[in-house]
Specification:
By secondary structure, the protein is mainly alpha-helical. The protein has helices at 30-38, 48-69, 75-82, 86-89, 91-114, 116-134, 140-168, 174-202, 205-226, 240-252, 256-282, 290-295, 302-317, 319-336, 342-370, 375-428. The chain contains 16 helices and no strands. It starts with 29 loop residues before the first helix and ends in a 10-residue tail after the last helix.
Length: 438
């Protein structure tokens, strides 16, 4: 598809500076104006701006996933306090991820129109405020409403962060930078679970949730202060016709829909395992304390290594090969959790988490690499499926747990990961990127 000077084009492609000489110097054509916006170089690894971007998005990812998953280790506590089933208790997480997925349909295109930094800053601050309010809710329905608003707010961070990196970071370092961002996600997921698990044991779940909300407010302020403004961002239209054209373009691509499906399967498997492993370890024959279940979330720290490592391995072996290896590691870790020894279970959880964060790094960086235009919308579609998997599989897993125990979880997640492996093999045979329109 050729684009005229008045057609919205992919906002990650800098125009050839030499083309500016074609127009008279006093005539400000559309192409000249666009070229002046993007003539600054990309952010290179080792620069002070790269450090600021890394720190800002590290704090954003940490706060986002701490707020999103802080309820996971206390699901049994919520079941007891409110007299609800495990599947109903899991709604406190599923409703957040479902609303996050819903919000992605709007926040990604919104950031394409008004900018990246503003959307992320406001979204993170709103999520922090809603978390603090959630700590004071006395009814289960009130908690679910606030958790829904938290998920809706966090969509403004999840949808835009990947797009910001793909636009501002030098292309050869995007995968590595994405890995650093996802490592912040892994620490955030671990911190949220660890803090709520331990503080709930010593104080209450309300104190734990409120403390995380205050931390997120500080993270939001830090993020706003140190994140460099976008230099390669160019506003695109929010007209429904433009959005529909870009939507069709994404779904007609040979690889993007498969990457969307991969996100659904990977995240659905990950959330389901950690939703119900707590129920297993709190019961006989383990009888672990709530604090110990929270501490087990340190396995998330494997993501701080596996995410950037996967990003660096992509340059050597390609995305397809790294993705297949990562999903295989996840499947191996899942099967190991089927043993009864607590240390073997912990080892299986560690492998599973490390494989997940590596796989997510590959698929998320692949989206921006393959999308031909409207990268914000493409990232939103990927994350829509990603968090849709969290909501649907995370709650459906409760049915398998209730009726078949951990063997049911193994069957359910094993099936999902085998499908993910087949998709990975097909993606491996496709070109990693497509020719972009000019």
């Amino acid at each position: 598809m050729a684009a005229s000077s008045h057609t919205v084009i992919d906002n990650s492609i800098p125009l050839d500076v030499e083309e500016q000489s074609v127009s008279p110097p006093l005539v400000k054509t559309t192409e000249t104006i666009r070229s002046s916006r993007v003539k600054s170089p990309f952010i290179e690894r080792g620069s002070s701006q790269f450090t600021n971007v890394t720190l800002a998005l590290f704090f954003a990812g940490l706060a986002t996933f701490a707020l999103l998953y802080c309820v996971q280790p206390i699901l049994p506590v919520l079941s007891s306090d409110f007299g609800i089933s495990p599947a109903s208790s899991s709604l406190s997480l599923s409703v957040s991820t479902a609303m996050l997925a819903f919000g992605l349909m709007f926040t990604g295109p919104l950031s394409d129109a008004i900018g990246r930094k503003a959307v992320m800053s406001v979204a993170l601050a709103l999520a922090a405020v809603c978390t603090i309010i959630c700590a004071f809710m006395s009814s289960w329905h009130g908690i679910l409403i606030m958790r829904a608003l938290i998920g809706l707010s966090l969509s403004g961070v999840a949808a835009v962060a990947m797009t910001y990196l793909s636009e501002e970071i030098s292309p050869q370092f995007v995968a590595f930078s994405m890995g650093l961002y996802i490592s912040g996600n892994s620490i955030g997921g671990m911190s949220g679970r660890l803090v709520t698990g331990v503080l709930t044991d010593f104080f209450s779940w309300r104190v734990a949730i409120g403390s995380l909300g205050l931390f997120a407010l500080i993270a939001a302020f830090t993020f706003w202060r140190i994140l460099p403004a976008s230099r390669h961002f160019r506003a695109t239209s929010l007209r429904p016709r433009t959005l529909l054209i870009n939507f069709r373009l994404h779904w007609h691509d040979r690889g993007l829909p498969l990457l969307f499906a991969e996100g659904f399967l990977l995240m659905g498997s990950f959330v389901t395992l950690f939703n119900y492993i707590g129920y297993r370890l709190l019961a006989e024959p383990y009888f672990l304390s709530q604090a110990m279940v929270g501490i087990l979330s340190v396995v998330y720290l494997t993501g701080t290594y596996s995410s950037p490592k996967a990003g660096s391995l992509i340059n050597r072996f390609g995305r397809g090969a790294v993705l297949i290896t990562a999903v295989t590691i996840m499947l191996s870790g899942l099967l190991i959790t089927g043993f009864s020894n607590i240390w073997v279970i912990l080892f299986g959880m560690t492998l599973f988490a490390g494989g997940f964060f590596a796989a997510h790094t590959v698929t998320s960086s692949w989206i921006g690499h393959r999308a031909r235009r409207a990268k914000g919308q493409a990232s939103s579609l990927y994350l829509l499926c990603y968090y849709g998997g969290s909501s649907i599989a995370g709650t459906l897993g409760g049915v398998f747990w209730k009726n078949f125990g951990w063997n049911g979880i193994l069957l359910f997640l094993g099936t999902m990961l085998v499908i993910a492996l087949f998709i990975g093999r097909y993606l491996h045979r496709l070109p990693e990127s497509v020719k972009r329109p000019i």
